[in-house]
Amino acid sequence: MIRRFAGMAVLGATMLALGVGCGSGHKKVEVKVTYDGQPLAGAMVVFAADNGQLASGLTDAGGMCTLKSGVKEGVPPGTYAVTISKLEKPAVDANADPKAAMDFMKTGGPKPGGAKVPGAAVGGPPGGPGGAPTGPKNLINNKYNDPKTSGLSCKVPDDVSGVKEFALSSK
Question: Which pLDDT tens digit goes with each residue over 137-150?
């Protein structure tokens, strides 16, 4: 009985060490993003496969991030188109009334000629023609925000034996 248990324990430990069994097949992917040679903090890195599989991460002050697929750390094997964006954060007054801001959000935001965002630093949210929201401004070259123009890709696990680096340029 003890021999059988010991044999099962050795087999289980071996399977764990080899990653066999109920593993997810996800590969840890660490990314470093630079922009004009400098680490790019606060950038969203997205890996998108043709089958709809997504993985993403937000870079730290050193331009580094570890990608997750949903809530699971790592990326399933496959070929991914890569997009990278860094969006402008709206300037908001830290002393603004949070209830007024929430009420404003619940009503759907400003109407043409209507009220401004409570706590916005200057003039409320960005607006396009007719007062339509345009969304936050991308602070890096827009080509990196579109998988068709980014020129960035990654094959997991082949391209990720170490840190996968993306050197972006403003030009």
Answer: 899 999 999 999 99
Instruction: Spell out where 1-88 has E strands.
Output: 30-35, 38-39, 44-48, 54-58, 64-66, 68-69, 72-73, 78-85
Tally of residues, the chain: 171
Question: In the chain, where does the domain assigned CATH 2.60.40.10 lie?
Answer: 24-89+137-168
Place of tokens 């997504």: 54
pTM recorded for the entire structure: 0.65
Whether residue 53 has pLDDT greater than 50: yes
Distance between CA atoms of 153 and 160, rounded to whole angstroms? 11
Q: Is the peptide bond before 157 cis (omega within 30 degrees of 0)?
A: yes
Indicate the burial class of 81 (C-beta count within 10 angstroms; 0-12, 13-18, 19 or more): middle
Strands (E), the chain: 30-35, 38-39, 44-48, 54-58, 64-66, 68-69, 72-73, 78-85, 153-156, 164-168
pLDDT digits (tens, 9 = 90+) for 91-130: 666 677 777 777 766 766 554 544 454 444 444 444 445 5
For the domain 24-89+137-168, what is the CATH code? 2.60.40.10
Query: How far is Cα 73 from Cα 96, in angstroms, rounded to an integer?
Result: 36
pLDDT above 90: residue 7: no
